[in-house]
Design goal:
alpha+beta; 5-stranded antiparallel β-sheet; 5 strands; 44% helix; 20% strand
Length: 89
């Protein structure tokens, strides 16, 4: 029997767009950074992500997070959460 978290990750994974999956793969590869704030901006390979709504949605869904808390204009490494890893596995 699967745990509740696994079921939620499976449902979320089924609803992710191709762009959202690509963002999660970039985060998994260590290529992404997040800024601070309640709506953090995502940078991939040092450049702003072209779809900030996707990155905001992924953070709100609990699929990615920053390594540490930073100020509004500071950046930190973006990391996948357990649910984020499950969503792209």
């Amino acid at each position: 029997m699967r745990g509740v978290g696994e079921g939620v990750a499976m449902i979320v994974a089924e609803e992710l767009s191709g762009r959202a999956r690509a963002v999660l793969r970039a985060v998994a590869a260590g290529r992404a950074q997040l800024t601070g704030g309640c709506e953090p901006d995502l940078y991939i390979d040092g450049l702003p992500c072209c779809d900030q709504m996707v990155s905001h949605d992924l953070v709100r869904a609990g699929l990615l997070r920053g390594r540490r808390e930073v100020g509004l204009y500071e950046r930190t490494e973006a990391l996948l959460t357990e649910a984020g890893r499950a969503a792209i596995s």
